[in-house]
Amino acid sequence: MKKEKFSTKKLEYLKKSDCFICKGQIRKEDTIFENKEFIAFLDIFPPTKGYAIVAPKKHFEDITEIPEKELQKTMLLVKKVAKAIKAAYSPRRICLAQTGGLVSHFHFHVIPMYSKDWNTSENFKRVFFKEEILKFSQAKLKKIAGKIRKNLKLKKTGSK
Question: What pLDDT was estimated at residue 142?
Answer without folding.
Answer: 94
